[in-house]
Amino acid sequence: LVVYIHGGYWQRGDRKGNAFVAKELVARGVQVALPSYRLAPEASVMDLVGDLREFLKKLWDVTNQRPVVVGHSAGGHLAPALLATDWSKVGGSVPADLVKCAYAISGVFDLEPLIPTSLNEALKLDAAKAKAASPVLWAAPPKDRTFVAAAGGEESQEFIRQALAIASVWGKAGVKAECV
């Protein structure tokens, strides 16, 4: 079961624009769930994390399966946030190890560099909110988890730096983490 989280700078897009992902995976026998989530500025970045936690709780209730969480861009930020979630504190009937594997494509894992950018007009981040929403600054997931941070060769140095940083930090904590 793959949960694919769309990108859009946390401000635009929905699952419909990413249905092509499901088509390719389903053709290969993979079950796929494509959630939508509220968008900024109506919701904060941490509200979006909460939306996806609720989605995964409901998905568990229906499927009783642990998903591999994959995300691109904003979804690339949200995927490791779900991997690093302490599911025992979320409530409901989900197992503490609900998400064991995540794959982030072109994600941002430290949001503080976004504060001085035009993206922050909608995100409304200050230093405290950026820190709270930055998975690289959270406690690393448990050691039995797997994480891949993918950054394209044509990405900016900041995307590559952040992918290398989260793989390093989480890897040193015992997570099977890599940057590709």
Q: Could you tell me the strand content as a percent range?
A: 5-15%
Q: How do the strands line up in the largest sheet?
A: 2-1-3-4-5-6
Distance between the termini: 22 Å
Written as H for each helix and E for each strand, in order along the chain, the element string is: EHEHEHEHHEHE
Tell how many strands the DSSP assignment holds. 6
Helical stretch count?
6
Helix content: 25-40%
Roughly how many Å is the radius of gyration?
Answer: 15 Å
Q: Look at the structure and give the mean pLDDT.
A: 96
Shape: globular
Low-confidence stretches: none
Largest β sheet strand count, sense and barrel closure: 6 strands, parallel
Query: Based on helices, strands and strand pairing, what is the structural class?
Result: alpha/beta
Task: Describe, in plain words, how this protein is organized in 3D.
This protein is of the alpha/beta class. The protein has 6 helices and 6 strands, in the order E-H-E-H-E-H-E-H-H-E-H-E. A 6-stranded parallel β-sheet has the order 2-1-3-4-5-6. The protein is globular, with a radius of gyration of 15 Å. It starts with a strand and ends with a strand. The model has no long low-confidence stretch (mean pLDDT 96).
